[in-house]
């Protein structure tokens, strides 16, 4: 802890930094960050009368999910997981941090974005940067040579957050990968089929899946001793988009097909496209040799799915809304992946390779879009079927007893935690949270052995014998 | 990076440490840790021909979940989440790290177990230690004064791992909390009802829920100027266990009931017990005033659920198995919680209080038990309904086409990624992974417009018209 005079000096300096940024109309994010530092300094000093002043915020680039956001998140996950399961995938989980050296040398330039843990004695650790490297480590550690698995978990990048566009420092990845030595292009085709199915089912509007070929591109772009004429032609190819016909055309170019690696790549491209035709997904897939993926580990086909429409800036939270004065941002890539046949071998002591191909769904961008789509809608955040209520006083015990009976019968039921709540406030709770039914108890109902079941929307009420209540609720909330 | 001579010296020293520990028959965990350090040093030096040697392991105290463990985890979560939803809970999520100062001063002695992130510029961050403090921060930040929410997520403690007993450095917490100003003891009773329901449904054997009262205990234990006679009597009370009668008996002791706080606490104890009777859970609940919870923030009722049986040491992973020579360990506490009325106010700039009560399910211990219970059983890790197969060559395209048709109809289907797999290996895949049906294609079936549907268990085969295949599979895999 710095001494008081030092702290006061630091607070003064930091205050000037904030004032300067404000006068320069710096970005909201930049100002927020400097204000946070100022508040932290003030907190160290202690507030009035020694009362500790907290900086009440989440860490930069991270966010809480409120119940409505969680409901949307669960809906999106459920669609995606159903698809993965339909394709026979298992799931695994790995720790949020790995030995630092496990991540070293896998991400090229981006390694500087890795979060390290403080050295508190023991091992040097880092937060995972993606799910692919931990997956490869898992395969090598457990000597697994084939698996089809999905993994949905958070990853961490010390990136410049752009939260209005769904870019965070803590965010979900949602990966499906097929590891194993198989006949060419069949698993690759299944990955693309999965992207197609998921984007269709999420109903996010039109999309395109763009594919390129790491090997072919390297050959085309890095070929040495190229005549000017050939170089021009290759430039033309790289900017071309197309389907199977493009693969065919490239194969017919002797310059390319004479090169062993390029020929193998082009043959695979053709084969992949024939499988995609069987899977009926070619209407959305194009070869686009200008495509590049940022990571070092890709070795074969690479792909990216892109939404066609431009969507308005996110309106997910008030804080973000204030910062978002762009009229609209392109959502861009919502899925990507490719083949990485060398990564597992980097972890194996004997360098044994396990060929892998996979896809990562850009779930945060999808959340952003879904949040906007539902921003004006009412989204239920509970599944409660019935509220146990009363219009009369002194019936708390009866309400608790009936609620307990319903819970024991598997009914989703709530009761207000008040001795004598007003009927109106009980009905209001239902309206606000979307509970469809109210089970009303009164002296008369207790005497008659019935419960008054009220439909919140229609206001209809009917007396139901207590023994039939569970069935009646189930029937009305199918 | 240290220079080569220094590294070689360090490796030599570390090698001696390992040999010494082995000769002293130190614990496996201790040896593993020192071996890991040795390997890390060797890795820094680089292996033969400059090839990098990886230390292939997960961080100390953490583990991967393999597909079988994930299947068990999902089953446990599904039971618990169903219960939370039955009680009308919403869910939220918070980031895995918080500003360091958010966690400061909440955990007493245990604060030394908090993982800090390295200072890479910007804010000082720590990994969350539990879900309760982030929940309180969330309420204060968003000015929420009432909510019933659950939160299932991983938390981090630099504790001494005892993985054979389900104690990890990264582990799940599974929390249910009710925040808000309500009539006394109703939310508290619901929390206990939830513990009761979950432990019943998980079918882990007999259990007891022990309750104590922070306020009452403080009064009883810290009361000044106590005569020896009264002190003795209080010692007796503290060691007593009982139900409503105990609360009654304590209330009748003038020494206690004359104290305002103790009287209020005892009155609440009585009230709580009456609600627990309405919820029909008193058969498992006892007051046990010797109970203590480790955390600073509890203010009222506290409780803990304990399994009655002793279970054998975990057999979850080979590494753990080797280290587990204890014949059997007590599983002990599998749930705990209590009332913490002051925590949210610690985050509010004006100190506004939001009363809270909650419960945390000890999910890792429950996983351990479930893993042992199923260690000899076959647990399915996929939900695949049918494998599309062929006994003849050159039918890959037909297999892919049919598989795609099934996926499009929502059937969970797999196909082997081989051009010409043997029928036997296709059937073996079904046996190994529990796929119940095989859809077999051959030249004859294609000509006749049928598919041979085979039941893997009974080996029965029947020709199904292709148009009826989806319905037939659905019917047979209900």
UniProtKB/TrEMBL annotation, chains A, B:
GO terms for cellular component: cytosol; mitochondrion. The keyword Phosphoprotein does not apply. It catalyses: tRNA(His) + L-histidine + ATP = L-histidyl-tRNA(His) + AMP + diphosphate + H(+). It comes from Cyprinus carpio carpio. Residues 4-41 form a coiled coil. Residues 61-370 form the Aminoacyl-transfer RNA synthetases class-II family profile domain. Keywords: Aminoacyl-tRNA synthetase, ATP-binding, Coiled coil, Cytoplasm, Ligase, Nucleotide-binding, Protein biosynthesis. Belongs to the class-II aminoacyl-tRNA synthetase family. This is histidine--tRNA ligase. Residues 3-59 form the WHEP-TRS domain. GO terms for biological process: histidyl-tRNA aminoacylation; mitochondrial translation. It is an enzyme of class 6 (ligase). One of its GO terms (molecular function) is histidine-tRNA ligase activity. The keyword Aminoacyl-tRNA synthetase applies. InterPro entries: aa-tRNA-synth_II, aa-tRNA-synth_II/BPL/LPL, Anticodon-bd, Anticodon-bd_dom_sf, HisRS-like_core, HisRS/HisZ, HisRS_anticodon, uS15_NS1_RNA-bd_sf.
């Amino acid at each position: 802890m710095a001494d008081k005079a030092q702290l006061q000096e630091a607070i003064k300096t930091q205050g000037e930094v904030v004032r300067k940024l404000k006068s320069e109309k710096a970005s909201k994010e930049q100002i927020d960050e400097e204000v946070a530092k100022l508040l932290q300094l003030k907190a160290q000093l202690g507030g009035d009368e020694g009362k500790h002043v907290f900086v009440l915020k989440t860490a930069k680039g991270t966010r809480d999910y409120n119940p409505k956001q969680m409901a949307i998140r669960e809906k999106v996950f459920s669609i995606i997981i159903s698809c993965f399961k339909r394709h026979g995938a298992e799931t695994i989980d790995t720790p949020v941090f790995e030995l630092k050296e496990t991540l070293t040398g896998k991400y090229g330039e981006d390694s500087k974005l890795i979060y390290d843990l403080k050295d508190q004695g023991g091992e040097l650790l880092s937060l995972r940067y993606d799910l692919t490297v931990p997956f490869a480590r898992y395969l090598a550690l457990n000597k697994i040579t084939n698996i089809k698995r999905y993994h949905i978990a958070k990853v961490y990048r010390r990136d410049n957050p752009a939260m209005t566009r769904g870019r965070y420092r803590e965010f979900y990845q949602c990966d499906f990968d097929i590891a194993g030595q198989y006949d060419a292009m069949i698993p690759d085709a299944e990955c693309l089929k999965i992207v197609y199915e998921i984007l269709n089912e999420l109903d996010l509007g039109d999309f395109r899946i763009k594919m390129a070929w790491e090997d072919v591109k390297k050959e085309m772009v890095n070929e040495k001793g190229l005549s000017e004429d050939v170089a021009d032609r290759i430039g033309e190819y790289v900017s071309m988009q197309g389907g199977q016909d493009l693969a065919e055309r490239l194969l017919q170019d002797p310059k390319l097909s004479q090169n062993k690696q390029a020929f193998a790549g082009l043959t695979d491209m053709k084969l992949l496209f024939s499988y995609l035709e069987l899977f009926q997904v070619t209407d959305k897939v194009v070869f686009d040799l200008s495509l590049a993926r940022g990571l070092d580990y890709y070795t074969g086909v690479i792909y990216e799915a892109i939404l066609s429409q431009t969507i308005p800036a996110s309106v997910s939270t008030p804080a973000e809304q204030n910062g978002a004065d762009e009229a609209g941002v392109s959502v861009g890539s919502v899925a990507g992946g490719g083949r990485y046949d060398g990564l597992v071998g980097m972890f194996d002591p004997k360098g044994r390779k396990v060929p892998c191909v996979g896809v990562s769904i850009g779930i945060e961008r999808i959340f952003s879009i879904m949040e906007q789509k539902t921003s004006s809608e009412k989204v239920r955040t509970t599944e409660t079927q019935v509220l146990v209520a009363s219009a009369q006083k002194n019936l708390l015990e009866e309400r608790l007893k009936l609620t307990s009976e319903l819970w024991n019968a598997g009914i989703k039921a709530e009761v207000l935690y008040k001795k004598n709540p007003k009927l109106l406030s009980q009905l209001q709770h239902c309206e606000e949270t979307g509970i469809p039914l109210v089970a009303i108890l009164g002296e008369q109902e207790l005497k008659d052995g019935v419960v008054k079941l009220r439909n919140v929307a229609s206001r209809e009420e009917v007396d139901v014998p207590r023994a039939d209540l569970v069935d009646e609720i189930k029937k009305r909330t199918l």
